[in-house]
Each structure stands twice: as structure tokens, then as C-alpha cells.
Design brief:
The complex is a heterodimer of chains A (199) and B (154).
Chain A: H1 2-11, H2 18-30, H3 34-55, H4 60-77, H5 87-105, H6 116-123, H7 129-143, H8 147-158, H9 163-170, H10 174-198
Helix pairs in contact in A: 2-3, 3-4, 3-5, 4-5, 6-7, 7-10, 8-10, 9-10
Chain B: H1 3-11, H2 24-33, H3 39-61, H4 72-95, H5 107-126, H6 131-153
The chains are: A mainly alpha (199), B mainly alpha (154).
Chain lengths: 199, 154
């Protein structure tokens, strides 16, 4: 129903921004329209999966469970969504929060094995062989970092969060976030160096 | 490799990653088990109701023409009353899960949140006019409730 409305508007040369389209879908989903929520899922799932998958160290099954949880939580929290911000930003925060809660709750969750099949899966879209290889090396090195250090690195260096935001989300001091980032970068450099030496 | 080189390489990684399977059917099933609701509105409604009762109470007591600006003591009473209201309501919500099986791996996080709640409540007793602590209490209880829902569902 809503999709039809959006299509009609597009046909009559009305171009809603992605943000407006999202907000229209959120309004419909908030009133119980499951198809509108599915449209939101289809539009944002890859972006959400990308960040959660990296926070989980490339463990596909675990990341998929968390993304499912995040979208279910989002559905439940939709009535609380304030239309002042982009839905994508709100959803991204909620998904990161879901992943970090699970990471904090895991005892001895460090140094788990990375799911290589997932890494290969991400490389399919990259046609340049060397770049793909470098990218896989980098993804693998990120995935093998200790969980907290990895979380800070992913959020700061890949997602562009500020230390203050990371510290608040991870329940740590800003100084600790900076120290974890320093540690993560050093470990990453070391692991990338080791990989190249092996080749 | 410098920090900026490393960061540049990291920024080149694709933000979008395709899940290995379609997650929508499982999400839809999860949603159908848990209906749409609004816990924060429920708490906000409670807070608003509590504030209105408090406001009416204060108006009733205060002589209107010479009503003084809120004193620290008055602020402390408001914080204390809100703190009790938040605690009562969240505890009532959490009691709904009494006896439900809890996912074992989430128990340490639940205990940590309980400890945080206790610490914040102690801090409110020591600093009875701190609105910041009240917000922290609400936030921590909200997390506790969300995690409990997840722990029971998983």
C-alpha cells in the first residue's frame, strides 16, 4: 500500500529523499504495517549487517542472529522513534548497541575463529584481484583483534564515530577508548606485517 | 604504515555486507511473537503523570503569589520521588519475567546492570538533587529490561 503510494509519487515526478521515504515507511510500520517494515529491512540490512559482522569478528552466524535481534528490537521501539534524525542513524545505533551488549555479555569471548567463508562472500563484489586479496587480509586482521579493541577500531576508523560516543556506548572512559584504538592499530599493523612476511 | 595510511585503508572497506541468507523470515517470525509496543512511552507517561501529581501537590502547598524558586530541598524531593516511581515501575515490569528461563550467557550482564542500579540508587541517596543520576537510573533500568526480554527470548 505504502510502496504503491511511493511509486505513484515517483511517477508523477515527485522525488522524495531517502530520508523522507524512510520516515513514511516508519510511520506505516509504527501502525503495524509489516510490509513497510520489510521495505525498511531490505533497504538497510546490508549496512547494518556490515557493521555488526565486523563487530563480531566476521562470525557470520553470530552476526546474523544479532541483526535479527536488532531489527526485532527496532520494530518494538518504532513508536519511540523521533523524526528529528535519520532512521538509518537511529537503526545503526540500535544495532551497534545490540551487538555491544552481546559482546559485553560474553565471557572469554576473545580470539574466536573467523568464518572465512564470510570473508570470501564479501569479496565477490570486488573484481580487482590484488585489491580483493588486500581487503581480505585487512578484514581478517581486523577480525582477529581482541573484541574491545576491535569494537573501538571498527566504530572509530571504519564507521567514523567519535571517542566520546564510543566510550559512552562501551561504558568506558574516553581515555580507554583512545588507548584501545592505539592498541588495535598496533596489533593490526603487526598482523598485516606478519601476513605479508608469510607470503 | 602510519595511522592515517591505516585509517585510509580501513575507510576503503565496503560498509555494506550481504548476509549469507535472507534474515527477513526469522525477523518476521520474531515480530509476530512479540507485538509492537512502546516501553519508553509507557515510562514517559508514568514520569509525566508523576510530574503532574507532584506539580499539583506543590501548587496546592505553595502560596501562589509568593511562590519561591525551587530550592535544593524541593529538587531533592522531586528526584527522590521520581527515583522511587521509576524503580517501582521497572521492578513491576521485570517481575513479569520471574521464573522464566534466562539465557546463561547473558546472566553476567544482567548481574552487572543490577549492580549498576544499586550503585546509582546509593549515589542518589548521597546526592539527592542530581537529575543526572535520575537519568542514569532510567537508562540503566531500560537496558536491564531490554536485556531481560532478550535473555528470556533467546
Amino acid at each position: 500500500m505504502l510502496n504503491a503510494a511511493v511509486t505513484t509519487q515517483t511517477d508523477s515526478s515527485y522525488c522524495a529523499s531517502p530520508r523522507d521515504e524512510d520516515h513514511a515507511l516508519v510511520r506505516a510500520a509504527s501502525s503495524g504495517d509489516m510490509r513497510a517494515f520489510e521495505a525498511l529491512y531490505r533497504s538497510h540490512s546490508r549496512r547494518i549487517y556490515g557493521v555488526v559482522w565486523r563487530l563480531c569478528g566476521g562470525q557470520a552466524a553470530r552476526a546474523e542472529d544479532l541483526v535479527q535481534d536488532a531489527f526485532i528490537r527496532a520494530w518494538q521501539a518504532l513508536p519511540n522513534f523521533r523524526f528529528e534524525s535519520a532512521f538509518s542513524t537511529w537503526l545503526h545505533r540500535l544495532a551497534v548497541n545490540t551487538a555491544l551488549m552481546e559482546i559485553r555479555g560474553r565471557a572469554g569471548g576473545e580470539d574466536r575463529e573467523i568464518d572465512d567463508s564470510a570473508l570470501e562472500h564479501t569479496a565477490i563484489h570486488d573484481s580487482a584481484g590484488q585489491r580483493t586479496s588486500d581487503r581480505i587480509d585487512l578484514e581478517r586482521a581486523v577480525a582477529t583483534l581482541p573484541e574491545r579493541a576491535r569494537a573501538v577500531l571498527v566504530l572509530h576508523d571504519i564507521e567514523g564515530w567519535k571517542h566520546e560516543e564510543i566510550a559512552a556506548e562501551l561504558g568506558m572512559a574516553v581515555g580507554s577508548s583512545k588507548a584501545q584504538l592505539h592498541r588495535a592499530r598496533n596489533l593490526l599493523r603487526k598482523r598485516l606485517g606478519e601476513d605479508h612476511e608469510r607470503l | 604504515m602510519s595511522d592515517s595510511d591505516l585509517r585510509w585503508r580501513l575507510r576503503q572497506l565496503p560498509r555494506d555486507v550481504e548476509p549469507t541468507r535472507d534474515l527477513w523470515p526469522a525477523i518476521q517470525a520474531g515480530i509476530e511473537r512479540r507485538p509492537l509496543r512502546s516501553p519508553r512511552r509507557w515510562i514517559a507517561g508514568l514520569a509525566m503523570a508523576a510530574s503532574m501529581v507532584l506539580a499539583v501537590g506543590l501548587y496546592w502547598r505553595a502560596p501562589a503569589p509568593e511562590a519561591p524558586a525551587p530550592t535544593e530541598q524541593m529538587k531533592a524531593r522531586i528526584v527522590s520521588s521520581e527515583s522511587r516511581a521509576i524503580t517501582d515501575e521497572y521492578q513491576a515490569a521485570l517481575r513479569q519475567f520471574d521464573g522464566a528461563p534466562i539465557a546463561r550467557q547473558l546472566s553476567p550482564s544482567l548481574s552487572a546492570l543490577d549492580r549498576s542500579v544499586a550503585q546509582i540508587q546509593s549515589a542518589i541517596v548521597a546526592n539527592p538533587d542530581s537529575v543526572f543520576l535520575l537519568q542514569q537510573l532510567r537508562r540503566t533500568y531500560s537496558r536491564r529490561l531490554a536485556l531481560t526480554q532478550r535473555a528470556v527470548a533467546s
